[in-house]
Specification:
Blueprint (H helix, E strand, L loop, with lengths): L4 E4 L6 E4 L7 E7 L4 E6 L4 E5 L4 E6 L8 E12 L5 E11 L5 E11 L4 E8 L3 E7 L2 E6 L1 E9 L11 E8 L8 E10 L8 E4 L13 E10 L4 E5 L7 E4 L2
Parallel strand pairs: 16-19
Antiparallel strand pairs: 1-2, 3-4, 4-5, 5-6, 7-8, 8-9, 9-10, 11-12, 12-13, 13-14, 15-17, 17-18, 18-19
GO biological process, one term: mRNA export from nucleus
Family: Belongs to the WD repeat THOC6 family.
InterPro entries: THOC6 (IPR042626), WD40/YVTN_repeat-like_dom_sf (IPR015943), WD40_repeat_CS (IPR019775), WD40_rpt (IPR001680)
Length: 247
């Protein structure tokens, strides 16, 4: 809550505090293990890059704000960086006024080349983004609107030139807001499913297995949660397959 990041060595139980760059509470942290760097993003909109060897801040990045925006208050809600500390993805939101002095809110997604402190590509969304995940070359994000956004990410391996970040599709949810939780789950499923799409299932219900092993196939399911007791599950990227109700 004070803008500081805290680390604990599990072997020596030594405590490390990284503070002084973020001035408001943190939303997300990410570690570039091979580069020995920690990335923090907070309510103040600052994305700080920390050297874990010296416990010092080595860079401060500012996500983009919508064009023609004034009185902007932005925040960094979610971060992800590769192990080498080269490529950083930042998502969040911003409150601002437009040219007509009307209050407005937007979301932002940006791709950074960390060594050069350069923003490679960025895009804005109608509502703030609160969480995202990478999966098989695609970036998936959720936020303060009932949908999942799919992004194509094209970083340049040789440096900041030639990268890209583009929306490739969107899938509507039936839950009120895909606010924060998003994950990819792998498992086994029946080769044919007789239940209708968007069926309502009770978590913890007593179900007896009736499917043989040779009738199963490997599948991956995208699970999205929000401001409701429901979890939306996608077996295909275009629409929900079923909904879980947490009771």
């Amino acid at each position: 809550g004070d803008g500081s990041a805290h680390g604990l060595n599990l072997e020596s139980e030594a405590h490390t505090e990284l503070s002084g760059t973020n001035t408001d509470f943190l939303h997300s942290v990410a570690v570039a293990a091979k580069a020995q760097q920690l990335i923090t993003g907070g309510e103040d909109g600052v994305v700080a890059v920390w050297d874990l060897r010296s416990s010092t801040s080595v860079a401060s990045l500012a996500p983009p704000v919508p064009p023609h925006a004034t009185n902007t208050r932005s925040w960094a809600a979610a971060l992800e960086v590769d192990d080498e500390g080269n490529w950083l993805t930042v998502a969040g939101g911003a409150d601002f006024t437009d040219g007509k002095s009307s209050p407005a809110t937007a979301g932002h997604m940006s791709l950074w080349h960390v060594p050069s402190r350069t923003i490679v590509s960025h895009a804005f969304t109608p509502s703030p983004i609160h969480a995202f995940t990478h999966h098989e070359g695609t970036l998936l994000s959720v936020g303060a609107e009932p949908l999942v956004t799919y992004w194509d990410v094209h970083p340049s391996s040789g440096g900041p030139a030639g990268g890209g970040l583009d929306v490739s599709g969107r899938a509507n949810c039936t839950i009120p807001s895909a606010y924060c939780a998003l994950s990819i789950a792998s498992g086994e499923s029946p080769k044919t499913v007789e239940s209708e799409n968007a069926a309502m299932l009770d978590v913890g219900a007593d179900l007896e297995p009736t499917i043989e092993d040779d009738e199963l196939e490997h599948c991956e399911v995208l699970c999205v949660g929000g401001r409701s007791p429901f979890v939306e599950c996608f077996a295909n990227p275009s629409s929900p397959s079923f909904t879980l109700r947490v009771t």
